[in-house]
């Protein structure tokens, strides 16, 4: 899944793809580089980001979704929004997935809207809310608590009429989690999230914990750490990784898969 943030203030690419033309250009590039899903967002979720109205989000997203759908009939188009009215407008324009960092908790009608739209839905874990989530996150057993939350949200979505096959789960790296004390055990325990039986999406690309582990590297110098996290996800069996650097990630995953495949050939040990 390649990321296109049509926002002025996203943490790593804010302001670069704000106009529909720029966002569309980036989406085209990510598809050419091998993205199976394009994730379009028009409101940053980083702590302190400025809230955006539904009207602004729709104006930023819908022309891009419609143009992409016309050009690429088969590509999966995801829209990263917590607002049901934005998800509805995007799906009507051709989006196939609603990526909701609030796991359908933002508005009372979120669950019913997801059921009515019939699109894929990403339910992500977040402790607290974006503005304050990094203030003092607390867990006794971060992986167990995230897994229990996600299982509960999947059950709520199904009870509201979302079909099981439409549901994806995401541990929400960096969302109400201490840089290393929470994100790292969660990455190490991804197999427990995968074991819930839904496709898992992992979003670790360029996130702050990578900077914390690499002497404070800036967001645009975190590719190596992002690839390491993507490979950890692949080893745990996640279904997709949400990344800024599609070309490099596809390459890393292809090499990783080829090495594992070679290891399964008869006689591989004696080569
Ligand atoms: N991370 C971000 C935004 N949306 N959605 C899912 N499902 N999983 C994630 O990990 C995730 C997400 C934050 O990254 P980014 O979009 O690059 O930045 P910003 O929120 O500042 O726009």
Task: Describe, in short, the structure shown.
This protein has 271 residues and is α/β, with parallel strands linked by helices. The chain has a single domain (2-258), classed as Dihydropteroate synthase-like (TIM Barrel), CATH 3.20.20.20.
Radius of gyration: 18 Å
The number of helices is: 10
Identify the overall geometry.
globular
Give the C-level CATH assignment. Answer: Alpha Beta
Task: Based on the coordinates given, report the CATH architecture.
Answer: Alpha-Beta Barrel
Structural class of the secondary structure composition?
alpha/beta
Intertermini distance: 35 Å
Q: Going across the major beta sheet, what is the strand order?
A: 1-2-3-4-5-6
DSSP, total strands: 8
Q: How is this structure best described in words?
A:
With about 270 residues, this protein is an alpha/beta fold. It has a single domain, classed as TIM Barrel (Alpha-Beta Barrel), CATH 3.20.20. The protein is built from ten helices and eight strands. The protein has helices at about 20-30, 55-70, 85-95, 110-115, 140-160, 185-190, 190-195, 210, 225-235, 245-265, and strands at about 1-5, 35-40, 75-80, 95-100, 120-125, 165-170, 200, 240. The protein has a six-stranded parallel β-sheet with strand order 1-2-3-4-5-6, with helices on one face. Strands 7-8 form a two-stranded parallel ribbon. α1 (about 20-30) crosses α2 (about 55-70) and α9 crosses α10. The model has no long low-confidence stretch (mean pLDDT about 95). The chain binds 6-hydroxymethylpterin-diphosphate. 6-hydroxymethylpterin-diphosphate binds near residues 5, 122, 172 and 203.
């Amino acid at each position: 899944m390649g990321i296109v943030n049509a926002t002025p203030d996203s943490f790593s690419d804010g302001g670069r793809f704000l106009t529909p033309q720029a966002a569309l250009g980036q989406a085209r590039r990510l598809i050419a580089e091998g993205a199976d899903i394009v994730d379009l967002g028009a409101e940053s979720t980083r702590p302190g980001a400025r809230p955006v109205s539904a009207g602004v989000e729709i104006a930023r997203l819908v022309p891009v979704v419609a143009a992409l759908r016309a050009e690429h009939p088969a590509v999966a188009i995801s829209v990263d929004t917590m607002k049901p009215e934005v998800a509805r407008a995007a799906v009507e324009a051709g989006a196939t997935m609603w990526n909701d960092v609030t796991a359908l908790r933002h508005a009372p009608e979120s669950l019913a809207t997801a059921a009515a739209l019939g699109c894929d839905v990403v339910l992500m874990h977040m402790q607290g809310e974006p503005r304050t989530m990094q203030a003092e996150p607390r867990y006794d057993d971060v992986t167990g608590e995230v897994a229990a939350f996600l299982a509960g949200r999947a059950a709520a979505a199904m009870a509201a009429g979302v079909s099981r096959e439409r549901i994806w789960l995401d541990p929400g790296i960096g969302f109400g989690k201490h840089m290393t004390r929470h994100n790292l055990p969660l990455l190490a325990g991804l197999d427990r999230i995968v074991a819930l039986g839904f496709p898992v999406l992992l979003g670790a690309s360029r996130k702050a914990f990578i900077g914390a582990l690499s002497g404070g590297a800036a967001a645009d110098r975190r590719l190596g750490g992002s690839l390491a996290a993507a490979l950890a996800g692949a080893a745990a069996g996640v279904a997709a990784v949400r990344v800024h650097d599609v070309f490099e990630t596809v390459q890393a995953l292809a090499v990783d898969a080829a090495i594992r495949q070679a290891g399964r050939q008869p006689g591989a040990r004696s080569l």
